[in-house]
Amino acid sequence: SYAILAPNPHNRQPWIVELKSDTEAILGCDLGRLLPETDPFDRQIVIGLGCFLELFSLAAGHDGFRALIELFPQGEPENRLDSRPIAHLRLVPDAKFAADPLFAYAMQRRTNRSPYRTTRPVSEQDLEAINATAGPAVIAAGTVAGARLQQLRDLSQAALRDEINDPVAFGESVDLMRIGRAEIEANPDGISIGGPFLEALAILGIVSREAMADPDSSSFQIGLDMADEQAQTAMGFVWINTLGNTRNQQIAAGRAYLRQALGVTSLGLSMQPMSQALQEYPAMAGHFKRAHELLAQTAGERVQMLARIGHADTVPPAPRWALSTRIKQT
Known about the structure:
The protein is α+β, with helices and mostly antiparallel strands. Helices cover 37% and strands 18% of the residues. It contains ten helices and eleven strands. Strands 3-4-2-1-11 form a five-stranded mixed sheet, with helices on one face. A four-stranded antiparallel sheet has the order 5-8-10-9, with helices on both faces. Strands 6-7 form a two-stranded parallel sheet. Helix 1 crosses helix 9 and helix 2 crosses helix 9. The longest helix has 20 residues. It is globular. The two termini are 18 Å apart. The mean pLDDT is 95.
């Protein structure tokens, strides 16, 4: 019940858990929840599953269990995910296992897409604390000032704009938009567009999937303006690299990202992934190269996650499918 609150791409909630007993389960991926246009190798989906596993592990520790996680027990998928399980999960009671203090922030964590306050910088001390949470399985780094901060703002803005201007890639997002309370409640996944102001625009026909996909519409321009504002109000960036790009390393990146997100929350900061430049479809090729020129230190090093950080108003949690819909009984 805690693990399904983990961050994941486009809020697709791709996890499906087959219960074997009170203390044993199999984690699989719902293959109907992939993002083939913007995530053609399912890398981002696997990172989201890594977030799920880390939050599961933290919740288990809070309840006095050690979570034993065997990744890809039937083999590691290569180019695309398949029906083989992601992980075998087992809970073992362990009175001596120390619960991780990061779990205290699990219910407060949010992905915050609002503009961040450009009058409130993020301190180097906070940046160090965030990256210290990631753990030794990845390379965690970041910036909160100087030329690199502006370079990453500009890179994120350009990649966001190019994705929005790519009809196929952006069409994948548009198809997953849930506009207004009724749509969000009927399909509590995807990209939620709610609140009184947007509800009013939807009623007037200004905000609709058709309008958002139309480059000549005001809705389309609003989307571009929002992308610009998100990128240029970043008051810092954190990124996660791995020495390679195996499925196990993608899981490790997801686990580290979840920990970073909880660390951000503990400091009263906000966070949003800005990983368009890391995606593997053709329109991102130039941005992908630039991101690795800026952020990778050695040959073969893979930038797995890039996120902006800063101060922002609190936002409500993203909707989630009921726990019962994510469980498969044997």
